Amino acid sequence: MEINYIYTKKRSEFGKQCFFADTTHFIYQDIPSNPSLNVNYIPQNPADRGAQCADVQAEHEYESRGMNHTEGGWPKDINLAEVEQTMRYRKKVEKDDMYIHTILQVSHTMEHCILQNNAVEIYEEYFSGPKTSAVESGTSTFVEKSSSRTVNVFRDHSVSHSGRAYPAAHLSWSPNGGSRLAVAQCSLEFQKNGISRVGVPPIVNSYIWEIENPNKPELVLTPPSPLACLEYNPKDPHCLVSGSRNGRVAFWDTRRGSLPVDQSALEVSHRDPASCVNWIASKSGNEFFSASTDGQVKWWDTRRLSEPLETLILDPGVKSATGVVTEQQCLSRALGASSLEYEPTIPTRIVINCNRKGKTPTEKLVSQYQAHIGPVYSLQRNPSFLKNFLTVGDWTARIWSEDIRESAIIWTG
Amino acid sequence: MASEVEETMKRIQSHKGVVGTIVVNAEGIPIKSTLDNTTTVQYAALISQLSDKARSVVRDLDPTNDLTFLRIRSKKHEIMVAPDKEFILIVIQNPTE
User: Fold this and answer.
1) pLDDT confidence of A144, banded at 50, 70, 90?
2) Rounded to whole angstroms, what are the CA distances from A7 to A4, A10, A13, A50, A342?
3) Fewer C-beta within 10 Å: chain B N or C terminus?
4) Whole-prediction pTM value?
5) Which of B1, B12, B85 lies closest to A111 in CB terms?
6) ipTM for the predicted complex
7) B62 by DSSP, 3-state: which?
8) Are A398 and A316 part of one and the same domain?
9) Residue A76 belongs to some domain of the structure
């Protein structure tokens, strides 16, 4: 909207002197008011328009919107000022059926709330502060002490020959809220229980336990070599895959019994114990990969264990040490199959994160993080924030973010 | 029937902590009140507007829903509003004595 008005005036007319003279008044034009025009207009009552030409001196301004500051609602015929009329109107309303019905209904809820208020004062100060007896009790009153309770103990019963119980190296729950726990028992210490005095290597079994029955395992798996790790197929509650101490991987089916359905051929397997296996969320649901302390990661298909689908040698290229701790994300699409390995050799202070989609070894090893002084014992990705992962090693636990390569973001002392 | 209403209102008023009770009709006229006139008129006007606004909020968020009760807690007391189609019952209670 243009707010300037342009007019032209002849230069000769500027500065003309005013000559004042006295004349009689006469009416040039008389426009009488025409009441009939009122019909076209609706009087605006009340109209609020400020008419003060002075500056606003007020500190605050409050505009009440939509409120007519008189007592309203009264029907037209009742004069507000007359008490009698208003009383009469009120009495009339009180006699109304609708009124009675409504009040009875509404007062029911109201009484409930009133009594509720009287019963419990919900805004009362119940806890006087975050740290009341912090000195005496050592903890704040708000924090509940965490505790745990042993529900069941699943014991390995074959402690017979050497009297030694084999440590449970790995656990896996059966999928779909399963009630079965697969335990891989094996001692990973080098040559600790290699050959017994008789010359026959001891048979170390792994077990599948039913949660409800800790007395006897549901199934005993008898591998030719102790299993270092054992994993249920997340899609199939009967299939398991394992990596054993002699480097082979095996495929088991709980319906078939205690012997593996298939084992990988010795010449294409790992040279060190296959310390970790993990399923890949592939379309056929048959693929998994295994990693080992010999520095290789192999991808397998369960139907054909004679040869791995792919092999990756985890050589960072900087140091000659090959066995490293890995934490792998299958299909790089965050389907959450993480695998981790244990690598005890000294030069490895590096955590390597692999991307399966890469075709060349350089593409596969996406990034390296200087993690711990010493072996990284365990790794896990955060299931909700997939870019963060937690590593444990050298008596500390550290949380990392994938994008930040320099150091961990949080760590314990 | 009318006496029942009287009884109910008396009973509500006699609960512990209740400061006042007001019944307002849909036009904002206070029909019954236990407070003085100025206060009553103020409450009637302000609360009926607020209750309308609250109802429109509830219905805007979900058209199948409706406002059943409104409680306004303030430092000094609590105003409880039970709206209905034709009337509004307002009770002011002071729970901490």
Assistant:
1) confident
2) 10, 10, 13, 30, 92
3) C
4) 0.45
5) B12
6) 0.80
7) coil
8) yes
9) no
